[in-house]
Design a protein that fits this description.
Layout (H helix, E strand, L loop, with lengths): L6 H12 L11 E8 L3 H14 L3 E8 L1 H9 L6 E4 L2 H9 L9 E12 L19 E4 L4 H13 L7 E3 L2 H9 L5 E5 H5 L4 E5 L7 E8 L6 H12 L1 H9 L14
Parallel strand pairs: 1-2, 1-3, 5-6, 5-7
Antiparallel strand pairs: 3-9, 4-7, 4-8, 4-9
Length: about 260
């Protein structure tokens, strides 16, 4: 699948944005409920603030958690207007069941990295250290995208680890690393960049996995026009600049396939 918007999704965005142009009367302030992967916490917090300055009639309310958990909330009928997932396949399952309005675009990418507490007291140097029995190792649970990606990295590198912690999402894992409860963890590179108390150890490209983030409007959204405006902002130069600031990689070229 490519990073292009499907024709249906693109048409929805264009129609909804055109219906909320500058000549329309500003509506009463409304709450736009955005479910977003926990790894987007800092970047989407900044996007929320910048977006609301330009669109004071919209109050963005973020629900941040693991993408798999957010998917289950949407399946259960939670009042969500937009979903930003850290794994395209999670979004695809919602597309297939008609719960989101078509396949949204890949708006950002993210690499994995090894995270260690400041000073690297355990002397971690690379992926092979995940197999050291004396170390306290953390990864995300397999139900979370960061857990799926981490297992692919370890399998690719031939590393057999016995993690001491399987966190429900990457932010929970980062918190344990910050608190010194773990010697090393596999997380997104952006999560390390956002924390002064963590050091990053790069993963060789031949073993690494690049996560792709997609965003789509939920089919039963009560605010589809406002949701379309937010999607357009995320995809705009302003949104891209914020994502760049927080270390997210840009999408691949329009004709590039997913890894």
């Amino acid at each position: 699948m490519t990073t292009r918007l499907t024709a249906g999704f693109a048409a929805i965005i264009l129609l909804m944005v055109s219906c909320s142009g500058p000549d329309s009367s500003p509506p009463d302030r409304v709450d736009l409920l955005v479910a977003a992967a926990s790894s987007l916490t800092d970047a989407f917090g900044a996007i929320e603030a910048a977006f609301e300055i330009e669109h004071p009639e919209i109050d963005v309310v973020l629900n941040l958690a693991g993408s798999s958990l957010l998917r289950e909330q949407i399946r259960a009928g939670a009042p969500v207007d937009l979903f930003a997932s850290a794994h395209p396949e999670i979004m695809d399952t919602l597309v297939e069941s008609g719960l989101v309005e078509g396949t949204g675009p890949v708006f950002a990418r993210n690499a994995l990295a090894l995270a260690v507490p400041e000073g690297n007291p355990a002397g971690v140097t690379g992926l092979g250290d995940l197999a050291r029995p004396e170390l306290l190792v953390g990864i995300c649970a397999e139900t979370a995208p960061c857990g799926r990606y981490s297992r692919r990295v370890m399998q690719s590198a031939g590393v057999i680890a016995q993690p001491d912690t399987e966190a429900p999402n990457v932010r929970a894992l980062v918190t344990r690393l910050e608190q010194g409860e773990l010697d090393v963890g596999l997380v997104y590179a952006t999560d390390i960049q956002a924390r002064d108390g963590l050091w990053s150890i790069a993963i060789p490209p031949e073993y690494n996995v690049i996560a792709e983030y997609t965003i789509s409007i939920v089919s039963n959204s009560s605010l589809p026009e406002q949701a379309a405006v937010f999607v357009s902002y995320v995809l705009s130069d302003s949104g891209r600049a914020i994502l760049d600031q927080y270390g997210f990689l840009p999408p691949l070229g329009e004709d590039a396939s997913r890894p």
